[in-house]
Predict the structure.
Amino acid sequence: MAVYKRNYKGYTGRLTQRWARFLILTRHGYGRLFQSRFLIVFLAVCLFYPIGCAAFIYLSHNERFLMLMRIPPDSLLAVGGRFFYYFCIVQGALAYLLTALIGPSLVSPDLVNGALPLYLCRPFSRGEYVAGKLSVLMALLSLITWLPGLILFFIESSVAEAGWAKDNLWLAWGIFLGLFLWILVLSLIALAVSAWVRWKIAAGALVLGVFFAGAGFGAAIDQVMRTNYGALIDLTQVVHTIQADLLRYDSGTDMAVSSAWIVLAVVCAICLFLLARRVRAFEVVR
């Protein structure tokens, strides 16, 4: 529009509150992601196991069904730490695949197309940009991880004897914190990789490689050096160690829980550092 015509007007609509501005990126990110039918189908598949677990919980407390099928109640897996530990493993693996699928497309398009200056020239900080992109992944991953886990906990508390929920409240905390830490690590790694690798296919492969390579190198270090410290670079085992401790289940690992927490903190710090280096309003080309 030509300036001399003087018929332009400033924006007079409702302004988004400061604390909620990062949700603008989340809303538009979902609008683009859910155009993929494959993503919707994959999310539906991710809910099969929680539905099966809910059916198992209900039927395991149905005395008539157990008598009809001649199943001794003591032969069934108790709904406790072991039950929810395996739930965390299965849903965590699905969350890992979902992250590799959608994570690389969150930051790299903005860098490739030079869109970051358009974001950051507005009253929009780098932290809000990262929070907006991070919430896209974490909200989707929450739908298939700790949210179904807590629903299963409440289903068990409704069919179990009185007082079960109060005596096992630590299970709900372990489910939430264990899976929340897992999706936080996945999301930060995906954003960091997406910020540094601009080709989506290569970024997705690198997200997968971070965990597979860590497991392989960790096992090789343990074999060659005859030590147990190689497992510290296997992020999957690190998180599973923390989850097993939160759920009070002996997973058979030799890793110290304190070491697992330190590794997790270091990985998150590295990812935030990498994001801080790349998410800028300008880029210096030498």
Q: What stands out?
A: The radius of gyration is 23 Å. The chain has a mean pLDDT of 83. Residues 37-278 form one domain.
